[in-house]
Fold this protein.
Amino acid sequence: MSAGRMLPARIDERHKTTQRVRRPWIGALCLVALVLIAYARVFPAGFIWDDESHLTRNPCVVGPLGLKEIWTSAQAVYYPLVLTTFWLLHKLAGLTPWPYHLLNVLFHAGSAVLLWQALRKLSVRGAWFGAALWALHPVMVQSVAWVTELKNTQSGFFYLLAILWFLKWRDQFLERESPGGGSSHTDAGRTTMRRSLVLSLFFFLLSTLSKPSVVMFPFVLALCVWWQGERIQWRDILAIAPFALVSAAAGLWTIWEQKFHARAIGPDWSQSLAERLVIAGRALWFYLGKLIWPDPLIFIYPRWAINAAHVSSYLPFVAVIIALAGLWCLRAKWARAAFFAAAYYAISLFPVLGFFDVYFFRYSFVSDHFQYLASMGPLAFAGAAIATRYDWLGCSRRVAMPTMAKPGPAVTQRVLIGFCAGLLLMLGAVTWRQSGEYRDLVTLYTATLAKNPGCWMAHYNLGIVFANNGALEKAIAHYRQAIALRPAYAEAHYNLGRLLAEKGELGDAITEYEAVLKINPDDADAHNNLGVALSQTDRVEDAITHYEKALAIRPDDSAVSCNLGAALLAKGDLDGAINRYLECLAAAPTMVDARYNLASALLRKGRFDEAIFHFQKALALVLTTRMLTRIWAAPSWRRAGSRRRLVSTEKRYNLHQIIWPRKATWPGFSQRRPILPCATAWKRCDWRSRLSPQGHEDHAGPSFCASWLRPTLKRVVSLRPPKLLKRRSRRRRLSKIQH
């Protein structure tokens, strides 16, 4: 027999008996142990890119939403089973990273064991070795070390379970059709067959709900039927039909989700059919090359410049077609196994070869995590080729390998066992080294830029990391690098403008915001921030124009309404400012800036009672927010008692309503403007009697009030919640404030 031939069970029935393993649990434990050792550096790692949207800042997982929204709305990225897993794990472990990494690694280890069993079911030689090659291959690191890619590992686990149950149904069906299969004709036998098929469909549903990219599963089942030496008959088509319906629904949903939810729309996804053929051909050979020689492995590979005008660009795609056709023609001689592996590889990769728009294609047309499931085919073929060529793999009972043929000379066995052990050791070492790059964002993006200096996305995300850590100069440098690599990068221009404005370089900030609006004139945030910068440079009229454009794009934006009111107030249009603030507070009653500015406008208008009312409301919000911040930062075992005692000076505010709007409304109040004394001290005395009988209202402004209420201002600015908030005894307290 020639190298690489994997015998189907129907061709060699004797080989089917040799697949029995004396102690399969030993082989399973070996696979799990190898995976845990190879990925040991993953456990102390933190969260990285995209983990925010899927987990750490996902309102469906850590915020006010929950399981209902995960399963019934598009507010979360629609991987409902993975988000449910995150939700459950968050309830148990919070946002401590290592439990999420451990679960990801365990799913991968479990998938390796299931792959071994599936290969045995398919009578593939070297099944354990092929599964070990897949489990330890460095290309899998991106899926296993990245918490977001629990989508891959969880989906792969259920994917393999579905294959195993389908193959079990096939075995039961063939046993029933055989002359000696009388027991399968009973009602119990038919029930067992139906149960196997239903369980296969159930696990496929779980796999699809984890990640819809498994939509090629029905074709994989048909390929398995062909591999087992059977013609695909109507009974097989009827059995596969439910899987095809689920795949069609998942595929259509994914196409819609990528285009309209992930927003894979624009010039980055405007390739013609000819260009997509070029991408598909290059991608297939690229992925295969990474399996053969996994170096360098990059988080974001360079994005190819596609030129469909050159005939040579089509050579990779033509080579794929010729290779598949050649293997098909030679299937009856020696290429059956090679065709099976190649067809599985191409079929599994088809959704990510560029024929459909995927948001990730904005950064690169290829990524290691795209071939997580597809790589099983070539690596299993490699294991089978070694086992078949030398007829030795599995001779050792110490590792519970299946015996496949008479062992060769002892020296040859030792050499080959040493070769395969060394190969696994090398793959494990590279995996161990590669997984260290996923320790944190700075490490990951630094390694990415070392291998791909033109990765503008890495520069941009490093800018975000350094900006969040307060290293503004480093952040600005990385934003400028991202813009140099991608001049039309609106997000980088926007963030650079924001940091320049924070540094006080308003002229440069205005230039960056204007660059954003040249790229995307409908960016409401850019209009708003440009308006703020223009207001600070006394260009109030221009600022009002941009605020109005922002509101035309996003009419319900309370922050823009508040800024427009401030601009109108600076212009002297008190009535216009008051109307804007009232509209803003109707949409966002807890917005402190709007409440304070409204009170200031009313004060200047001479509507003193209304001004006092809104000053009191603003102070109540400030005190409540400060108290809530302390409660939120406290350990969970202290929060319950703190929430029971929380009573504001005006009314008790719901924690659920305050803590989330606070993030958007509180930063603008950091200047601690002289609103604070206006609620307590002004309420105690008739401050209006201090005005002259002639009614010099100009003395009633905030500067006048601050001058004689300065002691109160200093006392209230310190904001000591235990002294300022009312308390009630345990018997007289009101109902608990909801979380």
Remarks:
- Residues 47 and 440 are 7 Å apart (CA to CA).
- Residues 597-739 form one domain.
- The mean pLDDT is 80.
- The chain has 34 helices and no strands.
